[in-house]
UniProtKB/TrEMBL annotation:
Gene Ontology biological-process annotations: cell adhesion mediated by integrin; cell-cell adhesion; cell-matrix adhesion; integrin-mediated signaling pathway
Protein's name in the database: Integrin alpha-ps
Keywords: Glycoprotein, Integrin, Repeat, Signal
FG-GAP repeat windows: 419-485
N-terminal signal peptide: 1-21
Alphabetized InterPro entries for the sequence: FG-GAP, Int_alpha_beta-p, Integrin_alpha_N
GO molecular function, one term: integrin binding
Source organism superkingdom: Eukaryota
GO cellular component, one term: integrin complex
Length: 490
């Protein structure tokens, strides 16, 4: 459920006929001639901007522009739950010469959704609440990219618990040099929980020492992982993976262990440590993501719930969590590297994915977007039970033209370090589609037990003299052979 809400919020598009039945979809209307359909809550703008206006003390938030979104579900007991969506973005400063970096304020706002039979999309947008709202100034720590990266994690080993992390890669410890910073908020038992010291969030800053920051873009990308139940505390062992692509000389990623420790007493929860993943590839850390969590069961085609191992003829699945880091550095140098974390400052390279040299006639942005999907093993195979999906939104197509975009998929074979991309890639529909600019795991949309993928194509034009065009999102199935279906579901 939350995965589909995630897609809705990202592009305000609902895919008719593909929504879980608990959301009461319109199922008796033909969509044969409809590529996509917008369903925008008429109260969205007001409900989203009101809490920002209240926090700012004026009405400047009417132009709030969000750039990131995530969603999670909160259990209320008695088999009841609500869905949350969180959006990060900014309010442009209309009194200055406008550029993409001219901001008046930045904000992260969270809204609740509830099921509603009479709604065209099966749910209503309820209320929105400010997570953090602040003005942008050159005289303090804040900058204009708060919420650029935003992730949520439903904690499976605790009742009614979810974590929300959002970052500002331009946060400045010394008011001058943007080292970046991330905050973690914890939602539990129907409220936002404070840290052990009474703060609303745990804060992590990067690339600073002795009151001086170094520009490294900490928080340019981020991901959370629940590892196991923490026997010494109230919360599970959770790892935070952060990309710092502008750290000198090549970029890096940081792995923060026990990321929820700040919400526990000082004597609880064990120690916290930070490990650094480094490479000699330029822009390393542009995107970071964990391999997907284990799925205990899924629904088969005959609507019988069976375990994945039963459906896969008792084939043992790989249950090793790896940190994946992208480096879209150049023609042949772009790569995705997977790391196994073995302990304090000990990580091994498990595998690496590179594009074929023949595919890289120009800079393609291979690794500009990165996602992982669960693809169970249905027979004895040497591959893992997940797929790595890579976006290359600037790919050139010999017929369609520049910036067509391309998306690759790989189910790694752990018997080798250098992985081969064997599955055919997907190309964008036309030039300047930027197909693969964003990727989102949707969960199992079509009920075949395999995660499906949403692929964003912003559709920016070649120059400012051409008419603007709406971006599109494509939903593609993933087959049991670890291939992207050539025709989109929607």
């Amino acid at each position: 459920m939350s995965q589909l809400l995630y897609l809705f919020c990202q592009l305000l598009i609902i895919l008719p006929g593909l929504i879980n039945t608990s959301w009461y979809p319109i199922y008796n209307v033909s969509t044969d001639h409809i590529f996509y359909q917008h369903f925008i809550d008429s109260t969205l703008a007001r409900k989203l901007t009101d809490p920002i206006n209240h926090a700012l003390g004026d009405v400047k938030a009417h132009a709030f522009q969000w750039v990131s979104v995530t969603g999670f579900r909160e259990s209320l007991g008695n088999n009841m739950s609500i869905a949350w969506i969180a959006l990060g973005g900014s309010v442009p400063n209309r009194q200055a010469n406008l550029t993409s970096m001219t901001k008046d304020a930045v904000a992260v706002v969270a809204c609740t959704l509830s099921a509603q039979k009479n709604s065209p999309v099966g749910f209503n947008l309820d209320d929105c609440y400010p997570i953090e709202v602040s003005r942008v100034s050159t005289s303090d720590h804040r900058a204009g990219l708060l919420g650029m990266s935003l992730r949520s994690l439903e904690l499976r080993s605790t009742r009614s618990g979810s974590a929300l992390v959002y970052c500002d890669p331009l946060w400045r410890d010394d008011m001058k040099h943007p080292g970046g910073g991330c905050r973690i908020r914890l939602r539990q038992d129907g409220r936002w929980t404070e840290t052990a010291t009474g703060e609303p969030s745990s804060f992590y800053s990067f690339c600073n020492s002795v009151d001086r920051s170094n520009p490294c873009g900490g928080g340019f990308s981020v991901d959370l992982l629940e590892v196991s139940v923490n026997q010494n505390g109230r919360f599970p062992e959770t790892k935070l993976l952060v990309g710092l692509p502008f750290s000198q000389p090549f970029g890096e990623a940081q792995l923060i262990n026990n990321a929820l420790r700040g919400f526990q007493g000082l004597t609880e929860g064990g120690k916290q440590s930070v490990d650094i993943l480094s490479s000699e590839e330029v822009n390393f850390g542009t995107q970071v993501v964990w391999t997907p969590p284990q799925k205990e069961a899924f629904r088969s085609g005959n609507n019988n719930t069976v375990t994945a191992s039963e459906e896969a003829n008792s084939v043992q699945s790989t249950r090793e969590y790896l940190a994946l880091v992208s480096a879209p550095s150049g023609n042949a140098g772009s790569s995705i590297t997977a790391y196994r974390h073995n302990g304090f400052r000990a990580s091994d390279v498990v595998f690496r994915i590179r594009p074929k040299t023949s595919d890289m006639t120009t800079f393609s942005g291979f690794g500009q977007a990165l996602e992982t999907l669960w693809v169970p093993l249905f027979k004895n195979e040497s591959r893992v039970d997940y797929a790595v999906v890579v976006g290359a939104p600037f790919s050139y197509h010999s017929v369609k033209g520049p910036n067509t975009g391309r998306v690759y998929i790989v189910c790694p074979d752990l018997g080798r370090i250098e992985q081969e991309i064997t599955a055919p890639p997907l190309d964008g529909p036309q030039s300047h589609s930027f197909f693969g600019y964003s990727l989102a795991r949707l969960g199992d949309v079509d009920g075949d037990g395999i995660d499906d993928i949403a692929i964003g194509a912003p559709g920016m034009r070649e120059d400012s003299h051409q008419n603007s065009v709406n971006g599109r999102v494509y939903v593609h199935r993933v087959t049991s052979e670890c291939k992207l279906a050539p025709v989109a579901l929607q």
